[in-house]
Amino acid sequence: MQVAMDITTKYCHKEMESYGQCVAAHPSTWQQHCQELKMKVAQCTSSHPVIQKIRTDCSKEFTEFERCLLENQNSPTSCSAHVARFLGCAETVDLAGVAVNPVPQPS
């Protein structure tokens, strides 16, 4: 998972920074206020092979985590078990043969 986070930070720093600032600024309404920024992060990361592989292999865990966030918008920390399951899955993804350092795409 650290590889995926490093890639996201490397190739999508601006989008991640804006989204993080929005979530911090709107702790109880971030789901509505930050939707456009969330989509920009998703668009930026969706083309990277490592992230695509993790999303494919761990889609069930990620969907459950997102559902938890939607259902607990006022207390996102209550989804820590969901995040742990997703991160645990991501750590087990076999990245053999996946291009870890492709040429970055403009965002």
TrEMBL record:
Pfam families: CX9C. Transmembrane segments: none annotated. PROSITE patterns: CHCH. Residues 5-49 form the IMS import disulfide relay-system CHCH-CHCH-like Cx9C domain. InterPro entries: CHCH_domain-containing_protein, CX9C. It comes from the Eukaryota. One of its GO terms (cellular component) is mitochondrial intermembrane space. One of its GO terms (biological process) is cellular respiration. This is IMS import disulfide relay-system CHCH-CHCH-like Cx9C domain-containing protein.
